[in-house]
Design a protein that fits this description.
Helix content of chain A: over 70%
CATH superfamily of chain B: ABC transporter involved in vitamin B12 uptake, BtuC
Shape of chain B: globular
Distance between the termini of chain B: 20 Å
Shape of chain A: globular
InterPro entries (chain A): ABC_BtuC-like, ABC_transptr_permease_BtuC
Family (chain A): Belongs to the binding-protein-dependent transport system permease family. FecCD subfamily.
Subcellular location (chain A): Cell membrane
Number of domains of chain A: 1
CATH topology of chain A: ABC transporter involved in vitamin B12 uptake, BtuC
Chains: A mainly alpha (363), B mainly alpha (345), C alpha/beta (348)
Organism (chain A): Nocardiopsis terrae
Number of strands of chain A: 0
Number of helices of chain A: 14
Radius of gyration of chain B: 21 Å
Membrane topology (chain A): Multi-pass membrane protein
Oligomer: heterotrimer
Number of domains of chain B: 1
Chain lengths: 363, 345, 348
């Protein structure tokens, strides 16, 4: 019964006459043909470069390209040099890394669960990271900001393992809907435990309420370097999964008959999601919406082929995140709006427009 | 269907399914017993005699206040909130023919939460202002959701996608509000958004009671046409406009019930989802009996609130924490058993 | 209101008016230097609520640090039936008295409160008297429980927990006025005057030491705050910190941020303002002391982005507590402490 919900509309959608059955890979999308998609991707990369530049230059004080050049070529230790090297650039790189990780893990989750509403949070990653961080603060007394990043990552990984284990208990393994349900249930359980702790421990609540928003402001170069191996491994895994995920999109039976080892694809995807989204969440808090929205945008542009959706999502997600971060720095001065808030407030209306304009591209 | 009888009251005839009635009565009796028990439990230590004394107007002013103005309305609010949530869940699950649909999906919880937290943080509103704001938020969000998802009819998938986007926006707004306030105010807001019955008094009990009095009869009266929907969408469509109308009315009823319950107690997790499923399993029927579901919901919330007040050492926890900790494993158990949930059904 | 109640109330009001006239008459006739008591007969006004003052309260519940310390300072420790919500260790002189109290880390439930059968709730913060917490002050009065909010934090209306504070009330004089009123209320006037005199002497000593030695434009800028995920959370203009720093001969580096007591600012904002001193205000635990700021001080000192800050290069990042920022009996000591930190040459 529930399978139907995930794989087809809750109630019959009005038929849209121009929609024809199409092959599962290639086909629809605004940009059709490899040429248009490649050129488009180049353009998207240029936009990303612009977003990166804006993120370095715009902020409490506006900087020029020359300031940035001097900070590296002629470092004198001035305030501007320090701001560039220790605040703006690490923050921008964090936006790039976290964005790409969230976008790609969103594609993986949606692909492997064949659920267009999939979000890395569905594997319990946010809830696990939150509970672990809160436990680290309240039980172990970890107060340094970097201290609970490791806990958050472990919590995210543990929660994802639990979700995957429960999701695979049934007779036919980790089916897409079972996985989603197990994720929802475990997230709710962990969320209740988190609430129980933070409502009794003021210090934890105080840390939690800021952490849970999701922010790039605390980005720090050393932590970023530590995260890099995890992110790289996740991205490599994702690239390898592009073709198998195209097969999974055809349905379990067809995929199996094409020689796809479903358990392997699912396990590898879960691992990649933990590496990517777990690291991103540990580094910047649970930034919502990017993971669910960006793959939709990418599919709207290039159709359902994962070999295109993955790179496009890896480029578009950081653009969304960086632009949101820059907006957050300037709209509420002298304070800042956290990037998690801006992403949702700016991204959601755009997403609704997209949903209204066309049926979300299927999987 | 075996066990079905017809009760005639003059011109009115009501089809009654006896096992359902029996289960419902049993659950209702248990819920009432739990509610009575909860009158004797609390931080203000009192013997049974003192509680009876307080109820009958004898005893000290503080004891009387604790029993009559605090514990009694709290117990009634718990019963009402549980019944309303369970009814809402049962209706939605029937309408969507999906055992895992709950009011959260139609944006009720997120809208109510953001509006309530706004009332707490930005306007430091009184409890009733917070409840009214939550109600407005719930209804407003549900309306906005339908409006935004409407395009030559409401497609289920578009509804859910727009719901996700709205929920993300509202969630971000809630988180933002929590960071822009003093810690104590954040604590107050956090308590609300976990789902709590602490300090719920007569106006709360009256609000949810009124909602049930107005909306429950609608749900029961339309239960028959609803049963037709179980036959499947195509059959229902073939039966024409009247079914479409009752479908719309029931959707509204479910939304309003959940909105009222959430306004009064905050988003109490899992009751709407789990109570109908427990009844379904006990009756071994595909249809969810509305009366037993409502009674089951009431029992769940009263019981969870008793636990919330007693099982966690010195200070109580919000009831939403208890329903979450108990409800989520139940869902996991259903999943692990592999029957019905998570596969085609 | 029943007619008999109304008549009784009218009667009370009339006798209060007569009493007030009498008091006014004696005040006029008496020596002008003795201040007229603020009692309007049987009540004292606190945050727009008239508090019954005919009988000194016997069973007092104190919530939040400033209230708990005020109760001990006024010598009513033996009248306390419970205490809740400390931000830091209580002042040394009250540690023994506090150790004997029943203590709740968070506010108790209303039932729990009532089980102590209090006749008075003294609060150091306006987050207590709401419907969801212990009830409005009016609703508590119906149960025979009077209440008090330390007035630098008055809410705009009973039942609210406003964060918007009237900056005019955030003064040391208001702390003294509260102590005087509470002394009258608890029938501990002498003790209250002693406490006030002690505080005034401390503040005066600081003022004397500073007098003529620190020019207005040479006042060091002081930031009271702590690192957060977003940058720093700092005390803004309407916080009592501003008054404390001012009396200690400094300037709150974030005094221009108004509206709320606490503000979240970006690290770049801190760099741009470059405060001369950073006081890290750790919070909220009954065992907290300024020594607990060590980790956060280290974090600030080691942050490469902050390497150029005057406070960092000069080693002027010091421990502080949130409790020291709050208006109450420890505020004079807080002034001396801040003065000793930012003018160590004068207070060696």
């Amino acid at each position: 019964m529930a399978d139907r919900v995930a794989e087809r509309p809750l109630s019959p959608a009005p038929a849209e006459p121009h929609r024809k059955p199409r092959p599962p890979s290639g086909g629809s999308g605004l940009l059709s043909g490899p040429g248009a998609r490649s050129i488009g991707l180049m353009a998207a990369l240029l936009v990303l470069a612009g977003a990166l530049l804006a993120s370095v230059l715009v902020g409490y004080q506006q900087l020029s390209v020359a300031d940035v050049y001097i900070a590296y070529a002629g470092f004198t230790g001035s305030d501007t040099d320090l701001v560039v090297r220790h605040l703006r650039v690490p923050r921008t790189l964090a936006g790039l890394a976290v964005g790409a990780a969230l976008g790609v893990s969103g594609v993986l989750v949606q692909g492997v669960t064949r659920n267009p509403l999939g979000d890395p949070g569905i594997l319990g990653i946010n809830a696990g990271a939150a509970l672990a961080a809160v436990l680290a603060i309240s039980v172990l007394g970890v107060s340094a900001l970097l201290g609970y990043v490791a806990f958050a990552f472990l919590g995210a990984a543990a929660a994802a393992c639990a979700v995957y284990a429960v999701g695979s208990l049934g007779p036919d393994g980790a089916g897409p809907v079972r996985l989603a349900l197990a994720g929802a249930a475990i997230s709710a359980l962990l969320g209740s435990l988190t609430s129980a702790i933070i409502l009794r421990d003021r210090a934890s609540l105080d840390e939690y309420r800021f952490w849970v928003v999701g922010s790039l402001a605390g980005a720090d170069g050393a932590a970023l370097l530590q995260a890099l191996p995890f992110l790289t491994a996740g991205l490599v895994l994702a690239v390898a999964l592009a073709r198998p995920l195209n097969a999974v999109a055809l349905g379990d039976e067809l995929a199996r008959s094409l020689g796809t080892r479903l358990w392997l694809v699912r396990g590898a995807s879960a691992l990649a999601v933990v590496l990517l989204a777990g690291t991103a969440t540990a580094a910047a808090g649970p930034i919502g919406f990017v993971g669910v929205a960006v793959p939709h945008i990418a599919r709207a542009l290039v159709g359902p082929d994962h070999r295109w959706v993955l790179p496009w999502s890896a480029v578009l997600a950081p653009v969304l995140l960086l632009v949101a971060d820059v907006v957050g720095r300037v709209v509420a001065r002298p304070e800042e709006l956290q990037v998690g808030i801006v992403t949702a407030l700016v991204g959601a209306p755009f997403f609704i427009l997209l949903v209204r304009r066309r049926r979300a591209a299927g999987l | 269907m075996p066990g079905t009888g017809v009760v005639r009251l003059g011109a009115l005839s009501v089809r009654v399914y006896w096992p359902e009635m029996a289960l419902g009565s049993l659950l209702a009796a248990l819920a009432a017993a739990a509610a009575l028990l909860s009158l004797t439990v609390g931080d203000f230590a009192m013997g049974l005699e003192e509680v009876v004394g307080a109820l009958t107007g004898r005893g000290g002013v503080m004891a009387a206040h604790v029993v009559v103005e605090m514990r009694l309305p709290r117990a009634l609010t718990a019963l009402g909130v549980g019944a309303a949530l369970a009814l809402s869940g049962a209706l939605l699950q029937r309408l969507a023919r999906n055992p895992l649909v709950s009011p959260d999906i139609i944006g009720v919880s997120a809208g109510a939460t953001t509006a309530a937290v706004l009332a707490i943080v930005a306007f430091s509103g009184t409890a009733l202002a917070v409840a009214s704001s939550a109600l407005a938020g719930a209804v407003g969000t549900a309306l906005l959701l339908y409006l935004l998802a409407y395009r030559r009819g409401v497609s289920g998938q578009r509804l859910v996608l727009v719901g996700i986007a709205l929920t993300a926006m509202l969630g971000a707004a809630t988180s933002y509000l929590l960071t822009r306030t003093e810690l104590t105010t954040a604590q107050r807001a956090m308590l609300w958004l976990t789902g709590s019955l602490a300090n719920r008094e007569w106006p709360h009990a009256a609000t949810v009671g009124l909602a049930l009095a107005l909306l429950a009869p609608v749900a029961f009266l339309l239960a028959r046409p609803l049963a037709l929907l179980q036959l499947g969408e195509d059959t229902a469509i073939a039966l024409g406009g009247r079914v479409q109308l009752s479908r719309a009315v029931l959707l509204f009823t479910a939304t309003a019930l959940a909105a009222m319950a959430t306004a009064v107690a905050g988003p109490v997790a899992f009751v709407a989802l789990v109570a109908p499923q427990i009844v379904r399993r006990l009756l071994r029927e595909r249809a969810v009996g509305l009366f037993p579901a409502a009674a089951c919901g009431g029992l769940m919330v009263v019981g969870a609130d008793l636990l919330a007040r007693t099982a966690f050492g010195g200070s109580e926890v919000p009831v939403g924490v208890v329903t979450g900790i108990l409800g989520a494993p139940y869902l996991l158990y259903l999943l692990a058993r592999g029957g019905g949930v998570g596969r085609g059904g | 209101m029943k007619p008999t109640d109304a008549r009784a109330a009218l009667g009370r009001a009339r006798s209060a008016a007569v009493l007030a006239l009498l008091l006014a008459a004696t005040a006029c006739g008496g020596s002008p230097s003795s201040p007229a008591p603020e009692t309007a007969g049987e009540t004292i006004r606190n945050c727009d609520v008239d508090v019954a003052a005919a009988e000194p309260p016997e069973r007092v519940f104190a919530a939040y640090q400033p209230a708990i310390e005020t109760a001990h300072a006024l010598g009513i420790s033996d009248r306390l039936v419970g205490t809740a919500f400390l931000d830091a260790e209580v002042m040394d002189e009250h540690a023994a008295a506090q150790a004997e109290q029943e203590y709740y880390p968070n506010l108790p439930s209303l039932e729990e409160l009532l089980s102590h059968e209090p006749d008075f709730v003294l609060s150091g913060f306006n987050g207590v008297f709401t419907d969801e917490s212990l009830g409005t002050r009016a609703s508590l009065r119906e149960l025979g429980v009077e209440s008090w909010i330390l007035s630098p934090l008055c809410p705009s209306e009973d039942g609210r927990t406003d964060e918007t504070i009237d900056p005019a009330t955030v003064t040391m004089d208001n702390v003294y006025a509260d102590l005087r009123d509470l002394g009258t209320l608890f029938d501990e006037q002498e003790r209250a005057e002693q406490v006030i005199a002690g505080m005034e002497a401390t503040v005066e000593e600081v003022a004397q030491t500073l007098d003529g030695r620190v020019a207005e434009e040479d006042r060091p800028t002081v930031m009271i705050g702590r690192p957060s995920d977003q940058g720093f959370r700092v005390a803004g203009g309407p916080d009592f910190s501003t008054e404390i720093i001012d009396l200690a001969g400094g300037v709150n580096a974030f005094a221009d941020l108004d509206g709320r007591r606490n503000h979240d600012v970006a690290t770049e904002d801190v760099i741009a303002r470059d405060p001369d001193f950073i006081l890290v205000d750790v919070c909220c635990d009954a065992r907290m002391t300024s020594a607990d700021a060590a980790d956060q001080i280290e974090q600030i000192m080691d942050d490469p982005a902050l390497a150029n800050l005057t406070a960092v290069t000069g080693g002027r990042v010091e421990g502080f507590t949130f409790a020291d920022r709050s208006a109450g009996v420890r505020s004079a000591d807080a002034v001396a402490k801040v003065a000793g930190t930012i003018h160590s040459d004068l207070f060696g």
